Amino acid sequence: MQQTEPSPGLPGDLPAVSAYGLQVIRGSQTVLANVTFTIPRGCIVGLLGPSGCGKTTLLRSVVGVQQATAGHVQVLGHAAGAQQLKTRVGYVTQAPSVYADLTVLENLRYFAAALGMRGWRREDAVVRVVKEVDLADYADKLVARLSGGQYSRVSLAVALLNKPDLLVMDEPTVGLDPIVRRELWVVFQRLAAEGTALLISSHVMDEADRCDRLLLMRSGRLLASADRATLLGHTRCADVEEAFMHLVEASVAAEARARQRAAAQSLLPDLSGLLDQASAPDAERTFFATDARS
Ligand SMILES: Nc1ncnc2c1ncn2[C@@H]1O[C@H](COP(=O)(O)OP(=O)(O)OP(=O)(O)O)[C@@H](O)[C@H]1O
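Structure for ABC transporter ATP-binding protein, as requested:
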């Protein structure tokens, strides 16, 4: 993505998001374990992984509605969830967040008012976002009568009312046909070109091709944080799905070795050193790579 001038109030070298050692425990389950990554400004970052791996929990941590058990997340120079971020971070959840019994315009006016916008400022913002998501022809239609793709665009329009510096989206293209998905990605790419950082979760690996950087996740752990080309080069794989499977296999093998070592240590403390030497070292499990902009 092309870079633009940093937005006011944010020093140029600060990433939009930096998470360090993030851990979230829910009930007895460790949902996120030692997650570390950064998101440069003006960059589209895809968060990919199978259902239940912790993507929504990670997004909620970035938005500040999920309390971390350990580690920290900085967003635009503030702790995630800080009051100063309220108008600078947009969040599009998986569940519908707009009112089906209101029209597109009524929804947008309602949410703009809830954000404290009044008068011409509110109308300007509403007209701008309707154009941005290409919903002008449906502005007076009840949301209940829109298609899935149009419905998603209304949610996106709400998140854009404030011109956010960071837009966090939870599977925004799930269930949409390929043409609508492509149209939405055009909007995402335009926003990034204008300087917005986007963190987008998906379990569709082919969406990876549209992202500047990827976070690959499995069972609450990051397997990789890299741009696509570096990821493919590192794993020597032809596509992201294959690279993901390669990293999953490496991670499963590393876990099995760790279990073997622990078992050997408890049974034969004196021999466990030998086993350590015989097995390959568990190098850093997450593959991190930075591109020129991070
Ligand atoms: N309220 C909760 N209490 C306890 N555990 C939860 C809660 N919500 C989610 N989890 C668990 O946390 C794990 C991660 O859930 P999360 O929703 O973050 O995954 P996900 O990758 O976003 O899944 P999906 O792609 O299906 O939306 C899951 O194993 C889930 O069972």
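The CA atoms of residues 92 and 156 lie 6 Å apart.
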